[in-house]
Amino acid sequence: MTDSKDWWPADFGHYGPLFIRMAWHSAGTYRTGDGRGGGGRGQQRFAPLNSWPDNVSLDKARRLLWPIKQKYGQAISWADLMILTGNVALETMDFKTFGFAGGREDTWEPDLDVYWGNEKTWLGGDVRYGKGGAPRDDKDEGVLVADAEMHGGEEQSRTDDGRNLENPLGAVQMGLIYVNPEGPDGNPDPLAAAHDIRETFARMAMNDEETVALIAGGHTFGKTHGAGPADNVGAEPEAADLELMGFGWHNKFGSGKGADTITSGLEVTWTATPTKWGQGFWENLFGHEWELTKSPAGANQWVAKDGGETIPHAFDASKKQKPTMLTTDLSLRFDPEYAKISKRFWENPDQFADAFARAWFKLTHRDMGPRAR
């Protein structure tokens, strides 16, 4: 966890937050509409998931695990290894989990029977919200299209008089795991974002309390990456040049790594202790007033209006920064129902820790089926 490699240096000297994101994004594709997705078969290694915009840099996370996989071989599946690594990451940063259950069996090719949406561009969302749908024709070879009878023809027929997400999809845009962290279609409105969060997490089997616990718990650790303009970033793994050896998103900005990393385009560090469990997320969320700003990459994010520079720099211990948040973080404060839960977690650290532990276990195990399996 703390053996930082020169080819992909660890933020704050600890790979834990990166591995939490890897595990979360492996399991987080699960949706209740058809029971598909999830981390049960290790599909993050294959197209299209390995090339989703929301999975930028997770190719590096999996490569960091390669020595472990080489050592243990078939004794542990990739599917189990990715989830187990997320658990170990939490435990090395002073969080007590509910444990880990193994038994996920790898597949060795992409799942071709999962409908991820009919958009033809990354981060598109027009079709799933009924704003630009087109029927399948011969040119759509290889594109799975939702069956109206199976997946809710009524919702598919609605248009842009409301945000009605196509069934069985959970994510709001092609290539995202959940929602757009800048807000719906990039609109930095925390209340509008709360609508998307609630719908998406419900479709992934999470209630409001579990949703708040997962977002705040996950954002207790690590940072996002948006050091420079997105046009510095090259093609995803499936479209990258052969000489990159399975890596994608080659970054031409500065060193292309460390402090120059570009992942989501957002540049946010939530707490003063990004490699240690605690209440720092709540203290910053409720302890400051927030104003809209832009990341170095031009993405919408929020910075504390008041207070000093208390947030560490990931690679320069001599530097401090102001607290920052995502639009979707502010949803936990300004949505009335989320706010009730958030304040309770802020005032009761034990309840927060328990809720996050339960929600994390559910997130990472809900797609495994009964114990007998």
From TrEMBL:
Please give an example of a GO cellular component term from this record. cytosol
Entry EC no(s): 1.11.1.6, 1.11.1.7
In the record, biological process GO terms are: cellular response to hydrogen peroxide; hydrogen peroxide catabolic process
PROSITE patterns from the xrefs? PEROXIDASE_1, PEROXIDASE_2, PEROXIDASE_4
> Could you tell me which InterPro entries the record lists for this protein?
Catalase_peroxidase (IPR000763), Haem_peroxidase (IPR002016), Haem_peroxidase_sf (IPR010255), Peroxidase_I (IPR002207), Peroxidases_AS (IPR019794), Peroxidases_heam-ligand_BS (IPR019793)
Q: Name one GO molecular function term.
A: heme binding
> Reaction catalysed by this chain?
2 H2O2 = O2 + 2 H2O
Q: Identify the residues that the record assigns to the Plant heme peroxidase family profile domain, covering every copy.
A: 139-373
Required cofactor(s)? heme b
Asked if the Swiss-Prot or TrEMBL record annotates the protein with the keyword Chloroplast, the reply is no
Q: What is this protein called?
A: Catalase / Peroxidase
Q: Which organism is it from?
A: Candidatus Burkholderia verschuerenii
